[in-house]
Amino acid sequence: MGYEYIGITVLWIFLYGYLIVASVDFGAGFFAYYAKLTKKDHIMNKLIARYLSPVWEVTNVFFVFFFVGIVGFFPDAAFYYGQALLIPGSIAIILLAIRGSFYAFENYGSKDNHLYMFLYGATGLLIPASLSTALTLSEGGFIEETANGVQLLYGELLSSPYSWSVVFLAIVSVLYISAMFLTYYASRANDQPALELVRKYALFWSSPTIIASLTTFIALSQHNPEHYQKAIDLWWMFGISVAFFMAAVLLVYSGRYYGWAFIAVMFQFFFAFFGYGASHLPYILQPYITITSGATHETMGITLVIVFIAGLCLLVPSLYLLMRLFLFDADYVKGNK
Amino acid sequence: MFFEDSVTMSRLLTTLTLVFHVIFATVGVGIPIMISIAEFLGIKRNDQHLQLLARRWTRGMTVTIAVGVVTGTAIGLQLSLLWPRFMQIAGNVISLPLFMEVFAFFFEAIFLGIYLYTWDRFKNPMYHWLLSIPVIVGSTLSAFFITTVNSFMNTPQGFELDGNTVTDINPIAAMFNPATPTKVFHVVASSYLTSAAILATIAAVMLIKKKGSTYHKKALKLTVTATFIFAILTAVAGDLSAKFLAEHQPEKLAAGEWHFETESGADLVLFGTLNEEGETENAIRIPKALSFLAYGDFNAEVEGLNETPEEEQPPLWIHYMFDLMVSIGMYTLGVSALFLLFWKVKKWNEENNILLWLIATCGPLSMLAIEFGWIYAEEGRQPWILRGIMTVAEGATTSNHVGLMFILFTALYTVLGVGCVVVLRKMFKDHPAEAEFEDRYPEVAATKEDE
Ligand code: HDD
Ligand code: HEM
Ligand code: HEM
């Protein structure tokens, strides 16, 4: 396997990691605000705060890792995406900035400030929507290279059913993943009232998720038949994903094994995400960048891979420590520490 | 109009984000070391005041770190959004330290999370103190990595350029370019200095308001001592930086010093103005001091700005940036030395109001020195984005919407800046140190942090 394949695999794993941890975080913000509106915040907001406080910064680093890595492994991506994404990218930055800082302001400063909670909840849905634009663009047809540089075709983007279906999928998946995680976390904390509530959310958001996935597939077949065909060739990946989806929903429905249910959710998205990614290759950005044409030089590519491995040796034990202390320490989860 | 000019607006937007980010970045690099020192001394001397100091500093830092993280994410993305051509080359050659920087953040973020939420979870408090070490290592390493990238922009090496394609890449040589050692040293030392000085400012202001608080007295002694040590380190590093410039980037030093003709035994020009003929007036001249600053020898020859082609000369106003930075450095060094003197001489009262006011100015001034220093360093590189290889105009995006984004980001940073100040004030006003101390230490009751 060439270093460019290692590179894209590594980056894709990190994007997948971001997808999971950020979804939990984004969705939790929305649920916290929703609970406040419906006066149920006393039931679950403590639970959310206990999980989120120690990890939000780590979540952000996953994202930074992805975009720094893509510039490192595929410098052409900086050139094309950089020019095309000025507006959507800036909007995403602003939303992320508002979210991160107001979370800290709320959490460490003024408790229960209504405006902060609202910003925190609303950005949780808007950020996935704006970030998903980058994936939409990668399908081609929305970017034009002229003598004046690279242009994003806003008309095409805003009128494309595909781009809207991706936005919709991003939002419902966030809510689904998050509710599934909170269900597990509430059961660990042995917090029955919160569990009842988040379990309902989890079941509620499962059907829109699967519907949105199907719609996106259909829209893709219209927008980019070639990619669709490659995805169909990988049908088994998506089949496994659906099987895990059903397993997860069944477990939650039957009210048992919430931990396994969340693992099933992770696998559901793992297979769907890697199925999508694998069928996307060789393109990074159709038709301008392919995995081979856009890759950095071999020396740099190999150096990055080495550094990456060394970095993992440092990070995995530290992450493990973090999880031991906050996620899997039953006393902490229950609020005894 | 310049508002439509994407190059100008990209420069302005980059400046805006960096000037704002560096405030929080500096504090993020320097405060962990102060916290660690306070906690260590607190445990060793069994001094609860110092331990409380560490806790309260940490709590304040959570807010500034949050803003540092989000503005850092902003500049990280903006580098690609605003300077796509530059990042295309940079991606090929200098992505290694950028990549490693993220690992440093990761490392720091993980241990900061643990440090914050485990104050009372260990029987032996030293274990908790140990957790501060990876936080220091992580934040200082991230400053190191990002500074190597900036050094690379000043003295690019480690690749060959063949039209638009780069060949012969050597990531290690690119990272350890001639500018790296002095720049890293100066940036890290000045971050430590500024953080210590800001904490000293807080202690001094509190003492002016409430005479005699033991907590704030101890805080003052600790922070001013640290300020003094870091001020010496910063000055040494600054001197080395000037020597580096004289050798590798003479046009930046010459523009900063208004040194136009190559000569030996060159004078150091402080402040002053330029008349219509481009001659220096109203300046303080220190004979031969520039030669000494540049080469450590009063008679050495220093290259003048006239050796550089006109269109490659940096703007001359950076002279003021340099002078202000150095003046502030000397002032901070002097004030902290004076305090130490008053403290050691038993007859003198180191807590007199004049001295306290002088100390109180050191924090904000040091932060200004950081901004002046960076503006000097970055403007002094103009017109290049990669010195000698690519100009700023070649690196910029061609999108027409940068002006609009500039307005949006101005609004964003205003909101973040105001929010940060409001929250920090509220956090410490509502919980004064003395009250918290009484709360926390009379009974051994396991009080919980940050609930
Ligand atoms: C508290 C902040 C602070 C203080 C007191 C000083 N500096 Fe500084 N200086 C910086 C903060 C700074 C900085 C923000 O860290 C810069 C900007 C870029 C860099 O490399 O460091 C800088 C840049 C910088 C440069 C340009 C380096 C380059 O572009 O490669 C020189 C020559 C000096 N400084 C010299 C000095 C001297 C002789 C000082 C005497 C005391 C001094 N500085 C005090
Ligand atoms: C162009 C210049 C810079 C870029 C691209 C950049 C990038 C970043 C990014 C992406 C983050 C957020 C990291 C996270 O998510 O945790 C960040 C935060 C930070 N940056 Fe910068 N930075 C720049 C300049 C600087 C400088 C000059 C310094 C050091 C003096 C610095 C030190 C920091 C620190 C300490 C943080 C806080 C991170 C934390 O505490 O977790 N940065 N920066
Ligand atoms: C954090 C402290 C920093 C501050 C306050 C700062 C300040 C500035 C200023 C004032 C400019 C505008 C120069 C001009 O166009 O006239 C600039 C440009 C720029 N800086 Fe820095 N800088 C900092 C650190 C860095 C670092 C660490 C990097 C490298 C990664 C960097 C990369 C750039 C780039 C790419 C530009 C645009 C090109 C240019 O105008 O030369 N900066 N910065």
From TrEMBL, chain A:
Give me the Gene Ontology terms describing cellular component.
plasma membrane
Q: Which domain of life is it from?
A: Bacteria
What is its membrane topology?
A: Multi-pass membrane protein
Q: List membrane-spanning regions.
A: 6-34, 55-74, 80-105, 117-137, 162-182, 202-222, 234-253, 260-279, 299-322
* Cell inner membrane recorded as keyword: no
Q: Which UniProt keywords apply?
A: Cell membrane, Membrane, Transmembrane, Transmembrane helix
Q: Name one Pfam family in it.
A: Cyt_bd_oxida_II
- Where in or outside the cell is it found? Cell membrane
The family line of this record is:
Belongs to the cytochrome ubiquinol oxidase subunit 2 family.
Q: What is this protein called?
A: Cytochrome D ubiquinol oxidase subunit II
Name its species: Halobacillus andaensis
TrEMBL record, chain B:
**Bilayer topology term:** Multi-pass membrane protein
Gene Ontology biological process terms in this record:
aerobic electron transport chain
Chief location of this protein within or outside the cell: membrane
One cellular component (GO) term of this entry = cytochrome complex
Transmembrane parts of this sequence: 20-42, 63-83, 89-117, 129-153, 184-207, 219-238, 317-342, 354-377, 402-424
Which UniProt keywords are given for this protein, alphabetically ordered? Cell membrane, Electron transport, Heme, Iron, Membrane, Metal-binding, Transmembrane, Transmembrane helix, Transport
Q: Please indicate if the UniProt record lists Lyase as a keyword.
A: no
Single Gene Ontology MF annotation: electron transfer activity
Subcellular localization is given as: Cell membrane
Metal-binding found in the keyword field: yes
Membership in a protein family: Belongs to the cytochrome ubiquinol oxidase subunit 1 family.
PANTHER family referenced in this protein's UniProt entry, alphabetically: CYTOCHROME BD MENAQUINOL OXIDASE SUBUNIT I-RELATED, CYTOCHROME D UBIQUINOL OXIDASE
Report the protein name in the record: Cytochrome ubiquinol oxidase subunit I
Q: Which organism is it from?
A: Halobacillus andaensis
